[in-house]
Amino acid sequence: MLAGVGWWVWPRQPAAIAPRIVAGTVQADILPPEAVSRLAGATLVPGPRSDRPHAAIEVSPADCAVAVGPATQSVYGRAWTAFLSATYQDAGSSGAYTVNQVVGVFPDGAKAGAALRTLTAGLGRCPSSTRTDQAGRTTTWAYAAYPATPVAVVWTATQNTVAGWACYHQARVKGAALIEVAVCEAGDGRPTASKLADALAGQVSA
What we know:
Layout: H1 2-7, H2 26-29, H3 33-40, E1 44-50, H4 65-68, H5 73-76, E2 82-90, E3 97-105, H6 109-124, E4 128-132, E5 138-145, E6 152-159, E7 166-174, E8 177-185, H7 190-203
Antiparallel strand pairs: 1-2, 2-3, 3-8, 4-5, 5-6, 6-7, 7-8
């Protein structure tokens, strides 16, 4: 079942809530479902959201906590001042296509840059990982990162046991914010992830 496959890349989050949109906040920065659907070429609906990074994920080997949980405390720590992770999924809620956006705002650009360096270093320590869920099911993932810059890193997480299934990630520093986009699908999600990262970076005013 693909739904379980997609969610394991990101920590499980509470059920979808209706956010109060206020200009200049992380809620206003996140791209709405209609905009993401246009860029992705698929009809997507709101899924789980979280207003804080989840705890680090337990995984084998332990050095892979960042690669498995790039939107968790492993990367964002506790220095952030505002945070929002929002997931959209295919209209049928099958998990066959998911998009995740993350905006974490820090007190200044130096701290946002430090979080990006933590992410980049964590990806470099983890070529592959195995994770076991609460039901005892395991998944194995391989990670491939492109050469990073001081303000961006791009990587792919590929599930070894499901043909073609992968999550395409981009993370960027924009001012005092670290933003992330992930597109998970059984196809090439790189172009969509790049378009979404450009659009999200254009929204963020931190």
